[in-house]
Design brief:
binds adenosine-5'-diphosphate, about 20% helix, alpha/beta, 4 helices
Length: about 140
């Protein structure tokens, strides 16, 4: 499994930019790791690299954001899925997921059955600014 240590936010944004170069339509990327470990920072760098100019933040309450872009980007954060709704209530059928790329923070609550991952990126807080980042290609 490939891994590296990001020593500041900029490095995580650049890593996301590199990852964005190799995306394939329909791809699903899981972003795992504790709060503050860089999952949303990664999503921000990834979306920017794909040309999305809007605001990217964790869809903690809405559970899913659709960033209209070419390709479309779907950003999920399922941290609250158990208390708010089950993944079956997300209405995923109505999103053109296969045309875009989907990023999922906190992939839990049954999402593995609906949208299995093509890549898993794991973030770990090592210190205030250091993050261990592991990349698993499924
Ligand atoms: P998560 O979505 O995993 O909860 P965020 O990306 O929202 O995490 O927050 C990460 C926080 O950590 C941000 O405040 C960011 O500035 C800070 N940070 C410090 N060092 C890094 C790093 N090397 N990579 C990513 N974020 C970092
Ligand atoms: Mg987040």
């Amino acid at each position: 499994m490939a891994h590296f240590i990001s020593t500041n936010e900029e490095e995580t944004l650049n890593f996301a930019k590199e990852m964005a170069k190799s995306i394939v339509a329909g791809e699903v990327i899981y972003l795992e790791g504790d709060l503050g470990s860089g999952k949303t920072t990664f999503a921000r760098g990834f979306c920017k690299a794909l040309g999305f100019k809007g605001f990217v933040h964790s869809p903690s309450y809405s559970l899913i954001h659709h960033y209209e872009n070419a390709p479309d980007i779907f950003h999920l954060d399922l941290y609250r899925v158990n208390e708010k709704a089950g993944v079956e209530d997300l209405g995923l059928d109505y999103y053109p997921l296969s045309k875009g790329v989907t990023l999922i923070e906190w992939p839990q609550g049954g999402i593995q059955n609906l949208l299995p991952p093509n890549k898993i990126i794991r973030f770990e807080n090592l210190s205030e600014d250091e993050r261990l980042i592991e990349i698993e290609l499924i």
